[in-house]
Amino acid sequence: MQQRAVYILCILSVLILFSLALLTITSNESYHIKILENTNSVREYAEVKNLEFDIVYNEYVKKHNQAVAELSKPSANLSELPKIVVVRPDMSTGLGNRLPGIACGFLYSLITDRLFFISGYRNFEDYYEKDFDHNWNILVKLYARKNTTSRNIHDYSSYNDFPLVVRGNFSNEEMASYDILYFQTWDYACAPITSNPHYKKWFDKIIPNYRVFTAISLKLFRLQPNINKQVKTFVDNNFNDYVIGIHLREKKSQPHDMVIPVEHYTEAVKALIIGMSSINITIFVAADNNNGRKKIVDSFHEAFNSHSNNSIKIVHTEDDMDSQNPISKNPGSEVGALIDMKLLSLCDDMVITYASTFGFTAAGWSQKASRRRGPFVIMPIKKNLNDDLRVVDKVWVWGAMSTEPCMYMSKKLINNEDEETVRVFKTNPLWMHYSQCHW
Ligand SMILES: Nc1nc2c(ncn2[C@@H]2O[C@H](COP(=O)(O)OP(=O)(O)O)[C@@H](O)[C@H]2O)c(=O)[nH]1
Ligand SMILES: [Mg+2]
Description:
The chain is of the alpha/beta class. 45% of the residues lie in helices and 12% in strands. The protein is built from 17 helices and 13 strands. The strands form 3 sheets. It has a 6-stranded mixed β-sheet, with helices on both faces. Strands 2-1-5-3-4 form a 5-stranded mixed β-sheet. A two-stranded antiparallel ribbon has the order 7-12. A hairpin with a 3-residue loop joins strand 3 and strand 4. Helix 3 crosses helix 9, helix 10 crosses helix 13 and helix 13 packs across helix 14. The longest helix has 39 residues. The N and C termini lie far apart (89 Å). The structure holds guanosine-5'-diphosphate and magnesium ion. The site of magnesium ion has 4 residues, from helix 3. Guanosine-5'-diphosphate (GDP) binds next to helix 3, strand 8, helix 13 and helix 14.
């Protein structure tokens, strides 16, 4: 009898334990599902995480902070300085040429196990939050004192070691011997490293969706709370269930004989919203000049609001695009550019202008990039006043393959480098994306 009671008690305890375990699993699961639901919501502003990359990034931050703290001690052993990567962004160019180059430098520092520094980004901390101090000023004197060796990997258009990037090993004896590797580029020049067989395993594990710019930019270019708040307020007040981001770039100095009819953006939007009659839509417009912005907003109002269609909201920020940015000499303000770029990045679809790195970079700068198709790209067309510009005999809009930024020098790579380098570069299907995004 007693034995039977013990037996029943045992069975009961097992059942209770099992139910408890089940409860924990299901409650965790519903929590998980809730998170997924939230992050899938088109209005969701918060950005989800890439766990493997998070781990690598957090380890890097710890290593960097420790190394810098160590070097600042009076007792520091300065006879053997850590190997480093120094990125020198060109502050006179726009964000679309500055941010991708910095992301490239950080990628190189991760895969070569070097410390990462940025040289000459004035007041970086006014715009972005920092987890570690990457201002080259803090160490430059230390490295200048020593007999340091250095090598340029990218030097704008004059020199790019693409054979190394595409198929070389950054840890070989020669490369490992340099104290400093310098990167100066206006381009997303590191893109071909995702084709490099030496680093395939690293990418497969750490950034398995190969959205390298997205992973890095979400860490290095987190906007300061005061700027982020402006973005969030704009999103909360204006972004409906489905948002199309438009970037009109009319005033690029080259080439002069091309124009971009604003009607082409309207046509692209019309195609995007087919079948969406029951959805509230926002069209967010960013442009490089006030008149262009007005022209395109008016054109959208005419196309979408004239037949009492109130479910389409057309919005833009108030950055004065006829003023000049004192930092870069580009139109508008520095903060205004960051806000417009971030808002574009948070849209569900984007329609951007060919050869403008602003739109291509925006496309990759948010977690939305990981589940969104590539932006739609409007082609400028030859200026010929006798033509009806809307009647064109060529493609005027196409869909980019990826949300990764543009790598305009990929054409140079394909034309100028050796056969094997080109072959390996082309093992990554995104070579097509990179070679189609710019003149
Ligand atoms: N606020 C704002 N600034 C813009 C816009 N378009 C261009 N700009 C400014 O002009 C610069 C253009 O440089 P970049 O980003 O390289 O784009 P690209 O010149 O078109 O390749 C940007 O960094 C901004 O400072 C826009 O839509 N909004
Ligand atoms: Mg540019």
